[in-house]
Amino acid sequence: MTTRIPVTIIGLGSMGSALAQTLLRAGHPTTVWNRTASKADDLVTQGAVRAETVRDAVAGTDLLIAVVVQYETLRGILDSAEGTLAGKTLVNFTNGTPEQARELAAWAERQGLEYVDGGIMAVPAMIGGPEAFILYSGSQAAFDRYQPTLARLGATRYLGTDPGRAPLYDLALLSGLYGLAGGAGHAAAMVGADAAEFTETLFVPWIKALVGILAPEVTAGSSEGSPLDMQAVVIDNIVQASRGQGLGTGTLTHLLPIMQLIVGTGVGAQLKPLIEQIKEA
Ligand SMILES: NC(=O)c1ccc[n+]([C@@H]2O[C@H](COP(=O)([O-])OP(=O)(O)OC[C@H]3O[C@@H](n4cnc5c(N)ncnc54)[C@H](OP(=O)(O)O)[C@@H]3O)[C@@H](O)[C@H]2O)c1
C-alpha cells in the first residue's frame, strides 16, 4: 500500500472539517487543531488526531493546511508555534487579499517555512468531488511536492510563484459570483411572492443555458446577437419596473452609466472597453 503523507489541518469550520474528512477518507494520517476543540470530535471518531496546542499540531507534520476566518486570525495562531516551523510547508486556504498573502509569505520565509496560497473555488460539500477546483500560487517546489495530496481535495490550478496571484484570481471569481448573486436577488425581489419557484424553474435554467453561449461571445469581443445599446435600454426598463414595484435599484443603477459610456464608444459588448470603463467607474 502507498504511504500517505501526514497532514495537519488548522481550523475546523465548515471548510476545514470538509478538508480533514476528505484527507482522512483518502487514508492520510490527519492531525487537527481548532480553537473550539469540540469541533474535532466527529473527526476523531473517523481517525483524526486532535492536537491540544498549535505547537503539538505542527510537530511531526511537514504539510500544514490552514483555513480560518481571516489572515489576522491565522497569524495569531501561527505566532504561538513560532520557532518550530522551519522546513515545513504552509498551504493557506484562508480568504484574503493579494497583499495579505504576500505579507504572510514574507513572514513564512523568515520562519524557514515554505508558503503556498490557495483559493478554494468550491463549497464544503464539493470538496473531493469532480467539480471542486483550487487555485494555488507561491513556492513551486512546495506545490509540486504536495500536488498529489492537494489533488485529493479538488483539481489543482497553479498560477505562478507570486503568492498574491491565487487570492487575486479567487477574489475576481467571487466578484463575478457576487455580481450574479446580487442580480439574482434583485430578480427574486421583482417577482415577489413567487420568488422561490421563479428562481428554481426559470432563473437558474435560463442562466445555465445563456452562460454557454454568452461567455465565448464576450471573450471573443462579439456582441452580434445582443447589441449593447439594446441592453442599455433594457437595463433602464428594469430600473423603471423595479421602481414601479417599490424596490430599490442599487444593484442595477451602477451598471447603467458604464453601459451608456460603452455604447457611446460604439465598440459593442467587448471585454477590453468594458474593463476600461470599469476602471473609470
Ligand atoms: N465555506 C465555504 O463555502 C468556503 C469556500 C471557499 C473558501 N472558504 C474560506 O475558508 C475559510 C474558512 O471558512 P469556513 O466556511 O470554514 O468558516 P467558518 O465555518 O466560519 O469557520 C471559521 C474558522 O475560523 C476559526 N476562527 C475564527 N475566529 C478565530 C479566532 N479568533 N481564533 C482562532 N480561530 C478562529 C473558527 O474557529 P472556532 O470553531 O473556534 O470558531 C473556525 O475554525 C474562510 O477564509 C473562507 O473564506 C470557505
TrEMBL record:
Reading the lineage from the top rank, the first entry is: Bacteria
Keyword annotations of the record: Signal
Every copy of the 6-phosphogluconate dehydrogenase NADP-binding domain together lies at 7-156
State one molecular function term (GO).
NADP binding
Q: Where is the signal peptide?
A: 1-20
Q: What positions does the domain NADPH-dependent reductive aminase-like C-terminal occupy? A: 162-279
- What is the protein name for this chain? NAD(P)-dependent oxidoreductase
What species does this protein belong to?
Actinomadura rudentiformis
